[in-house]
UniProtKB/TrEMBL annotation:
Cofactor requirements of the protein: [4Fe-4S] cluster
Cellular localisation: Cytoplasm
Keywords: 4Fe-4S, Cytoplasm, Iron, Iron-sulfur, Metal-binding, Repeat
InterPro entries for this protein: 4Fe4S_Fe-S-bd, 4Fe4S_Fe_S_CS, NapF
Gene Ontology cellular component list: cytoplasm
Name of the protein described by the UniProt record: Ferredoxin-type protein NapF
Function as written in the Swiss-Prot or TrEMBL entry: Could be involved in the maturation of NapA, the catalytic subunit of the periplasmic nitrate reductase, before its export into the periplasm.
Assigned protein family: Belongs to the NapF family.
Designated gene of the protein: napF
Residues that bind [4Fe-4S] cluster 2: C64, C67, C70, C74
GO MF annotation terms: 4 iron, 4 sulfur cluster binding; metal ion binding
Length: 155
């Protein structure tokens, strides 16, 4: 994951729509003390020390099961479980192997909610994401050999 500015890290600004932490409250940047409790509590070990010591999520390490351990461990109320897990949408970019004529369906194979399907097409089946079924868990990001899956903010 690229180094993120503090603001982009926690707010997923449009110029760098990196995945933000789950259930992140709007004023999280002001309340986060960088104690590392959420990082230590993460059962999937996908939370890391990011820019300036702020917690960041690295989906290259795996996907999020939405267990809530990060939120439960935070004494500063940085997380608000009444909020959606993530506001971003997942997109498959043009560097996708299937879109470039190489058979690959790694993202679909790792997608627990079956939000990724491959439509029959010639010469190669093409990936499609069902935005309603996608939980934004990030497992597809971890499994993509071409680094073709990214985030975008809703319009």
């Amino acid at each position: 994951m690229n180094a993120l500015s503090r603001r982009a890290l926690l707010r997923a600004r449009p110029e760098n729509p990196a995945p933000r932490l789950p259930w992140l409250a709007d004023d999280a940047l002001n309340r986060c003390t960088r104690c590392g409790d959420c990082i230590n509590a993460c059962e999937e070990a996908i939370l890391i020390n990011g820019d300036g010591g702020f917690p960041a999520i690295d989906f290259n390490l795996g996907g999020c099961t939405a267990c809530g351990a990060c939120a439960d461990s935070c004494a500063q109320s940085v997380f608000d479980r009444a909020l959606p897990l993530w506001p971003q949408h997942v997109n498959i970019g043009e560097q996708c192997l299937a879109r470039n004529g190489v058979y690959c369906q790694s993202c679909r194979d790792g997608c627990g909610p079956a939000a990724i399907a491959f439509a029959p097409a010639r010469p190669m089946p093409q990936p499609m994401i069902d935005a309603n079924a996608c939980t934004r868990c990030g497992m597809c990001i971890a499994l993509c050999p071409a680094d073709a899956i990214n985030w975008s903010l809703p319009a």
